[in-house]
Every structure is written in structure tokens, then in C-alpha cells.
Amino acid sequence: MASSSSDPDSLVTLRFHDFRVERMRHWWTLLGEDDHADIVGIFGKFPPFMRLQVDRGLLEALASFWDPTHCCFSIGEVDLIPTMEEYAKLLQLDSPFSETPVIPIQGPRSNRCLEKYLGLTTAVLRPEIARPEATWRKANISLDLLTKYFSRSAFPAARLARDFIAGKKEWKKFRINAFKIAFAGIFLFPTSAGRIDLGVIPIVFSEGRSIIPAILCETVRSLSFCRRQGEGVPMFCTQLLQLWFCSHLQHFYRLQTPYHFERHTVSQTVQIALPFTGDSRAWALYLLDLPLSGWAWKVTWGPASWMPWTHCALFDGVPLPGVWGCTGHYPSLALRQFSGVQYPPRLGDLDAVTFDYIPWPTVRPGAPYSLISRSLRVSASTGQPERVTALERELEEAQTELLSLRLARASEREASAARVESLRSTLHHNSVAVANIRRDLVAQRGNVSTLRTMNEFIREQLEISEDAKEQLEENLAEAREQLETEQAERTRVQDELDSLRSYTQALVDPATGRPQDIVALRRALDASEEALTSARTSMGVMRVQISVLQGDNGVLQSELDLSSCRLGGA
């Protein structure tokens, strides 16, 4: 834990320069959609960050809470670490581990380098570059030069056109290159007002390499420097750090201002509504009094499942190559930010991966005479007696030995103090981790009670399911008996159908294909018709005979009547 994590009196003072943000916004509006796509492919979706107003009091409070030993923010019982995964999601870039990080190497002279990327002549560039004889790692250039030639919608007039090596040819490509250099030097890696360090050139023009490690590296290096010195200029992207930190406060999720967070999307309003407006002391007191429920460990705009990179094979942390140097940090301190169970991590020494690309000179200007090696001094003992020379030699050797002993003791004291401070910080982090583990155990005990209740409920449901199972088995037995009965009935009906089919087949006459009973009936019907016809004929004959008999009977009656008459007359 940093010594100021609970003491708001030892606050860091930051000196903020005017980095000409408005000019960069106007320049962005002059570029086309294809230019925007090319630039966003390198830096991510950064345009909203150019509208974000930085709260200086908040950043000074954060710098005061920075722990340079473990490279994290220690605010009371809360430890937060900006990680490469979170920075990549904020800028909506690919995973920083899917690409090779940018590792700056010795480059050509700065004017030659700018001729290649800007197309301007040496006569124009050389007077504008500070330290033109140096490489890109020491030189810087003015933003005014870039905006003069490239912050415009069309090729400049004839007065400026002659300053280009190839004239109007490829001017649009040079305009994109100029904006990339200016954006990296103004927003991502600012150094001084209106000046752009040419060390950003390898970051901008290293295709297929991730810029996230460099952004995070310079953030860590600058915060550590300002924290140790008690003051300094923030030489990192302050907008990105403020947005990252605010995303870990519950305040912004409840009010949805000034940022509206969605998964894989971060959009912020122009009017910022922080919890309050105050200086660094007010912010420090506010953050120290903030309860644990006011912090958001996991951000909402991250993926459902994080896959953090916590350490390397031969190093307990992760090295970060930057623009002006290299450093390291411990992502294993941020497991709770990735929805993991926080445990006391193994912390090593960051000195092995902490160094500047440009080392200090062996003898610095203004160094005391006694610190300069004898080989660098000019002896003034020429002509002195031999005894005086020997005494002076012995005196110098004694002074050198005494100085070496003093330096050794001072180094031992510094190493002991650093070791004690490291042990104190490690002990604090371990205590915080143990408290977090205890808190997680309490939560897990509550989960065990809930699981027991759920187990009893499941057991009751199983008993109900057993009763239902028995009822289903009874219903199944009844259904099986009914099915067997139906099967027997179906068999009986099938047998009757087979018998009827056999009987029907026996009744069919093979000659006519008709049933034999019908043939017999037809024959009997024909015989009956013939008999009826014969009967009708016989009846006709009988009618004739009856008619004849009736005629004869009439004759006989007439004769009888005549005979009667005769008898009566006689």
C-alpha cells in the first residue's frame, strides 16, 4: 500500500498543459470516411475521447493514490489496476496479446524520417525540429508545422506547394500520416505544450503491432514518476485513464452519466456530470469514504468471460514496452476485475524490466568533484616533492574508500528502506486479499445455505415425483390390460374376417366371377319366368276355353229357357 493511500495530506500536484485539443477536433472533421477508417484501425474508436473534459482534481487524487511499488491504485481497502484487456475494450481494439507489441529500435535521423512520412523537404523540416541532429528518440516537432501544411481539406496553395518533395502527389496519404503523428503526440503520449515527441513514430507506423502495451506502459511510468516526485506533467492519455476509472464507480451505472456503458460500446456525453466538482483533496476524501458497495469491480462493457494474462514464464508480472522506456506491472492483483477470486499473488521485483531506452550520461553536469573518477581529473601535483605526492595519493585513496563506504551504506539504507516499503506494501495487499477471501467465504457460506434449502426442495419434489411415478405405473398397468383386451378382440375380429373372406371366396363362381347363389337364383328366376310364360299361355287357352264354354253355356241356357217356355205353354 502506498503511504498516501489513507493520508490525503500528501497529494501529488500535476501540471497540465494546453495540448491544442480543439485544433485536433477541427482537423478530424476535415478528413474523409476512408481516412477515418484507416486511423481508427490503429488507435481504435477514439473520437469521443477528444470531447471528454478531464477533471484535474480527480487525476491529482488518483496520482496520490498510486502505489509505484506494485503499480496499482490503493484507495483504502480497494486495489485497482488498469489492464491491457480493459484498455483494448475501451478503444474497441483486438486483444493486445493477439498482436506483437511495439518495441522501438534505433531509427534514422529525424529529418529523414519525417521526409518519408510527411513528404516535406529537408529545408522546411530541419529548422522546425528541436535537436535535428538526434534520432527520433530525442527530437520533437511543433504541432503548428503539421497543422500548417495538413490541417486543411485540399492541397495548400502554390506558396506552400513548393515545400513538398513530390508536390501534390500522395498529399492525402501524407495528411493521414501527419494526423496520426499529431494524435499520438497530443493525446496518447503528450510531453509539452504544442510539441510532439518523434518517439511516437514507431508506434504509429508499426503495422500489425498493438499500441495498448505502450499506452499502459507510459501511464504506469508517468504515474510512478509523479508519485515519487510529488509533482509532474502527466505524460499519458488522461482521458482514457479517467474513463477507465469512472467505469469502476457504481455512480455512473446508476445515473448513466456522463457515460453510457453497453457491452463492447462506450459512448459519453459532452456535458460531464461527476459526483461533484472539487479539488484533489475533496476527491481524495470522497474516494476514501466511498463504501465497497460504491465500487464496480467488473465493468459492464467487457466480455462475458475474461481471459487475462497475469504473468510470463520467467517473470511474476507482465513487462510493458513503451515509447521512452520499459516497465512492468502485476495483473494478478486485478483478478476481481475479471470476475475471479482474488488471492495474494506472488510479487517479484520490477527492476529487471524497468529501464529507459536512453540512459543517463556517466558523468552528469554539475556533479561534485569528489564523485568524478581520477581518470577524468587533471593532476595538479606536477613538481611537488615526492612525499607530498605520496600523501596526496594516500589521501585521495582514503577519500575514495570513504566515499565508497558511504555510497555502499547509502545504497544499503536505500535498499533496506525499499525492501521494508515493499514488505509493507506486500503485507497490506496480503491483508486486503485475506479480507477479500474472508468476504468471499462468507458469501460462499450463504450460498451453501441456499444450496441446502434448494436441496430440501429438490428432495420434496423427488418424493412427489415418486408418488406420481407409482400412479403412472398403475395407469400403465391398466392401459396394458386394456391393450391386451383390445388385442384379443382385434384377433377375434380378424379371425371372423378371415372366415368371412374364405366363405365369400367359396361362393364365387370361377366361370363368371359372381357368387354361386346369385347364378342359381338367376337360373331359377329364368325358369320361373318360363313357367310364368307357360302359365300365362295356359291361362289364355283356358280363357278361350272358358269363353267357348260360356258361349256354349249361353246356348244351353237359351235352349233351356226355350224348353221351359215350351213346357209352360203345353
From TrEMBL:
Keywords, comma-separated and alphabetical: Coiled coil
Domain DUF7745, first and last residues per copy: 31-338
Coiled coil start-end: 388-415, 455-496
Keyword Coiled coil carried by entry: yes
UniProt superkingdom: Eukaryota
Protein name listed in UniProt: DUF7745 domain-containing protein
Organism: Fagus sylvatica (Beechnut)
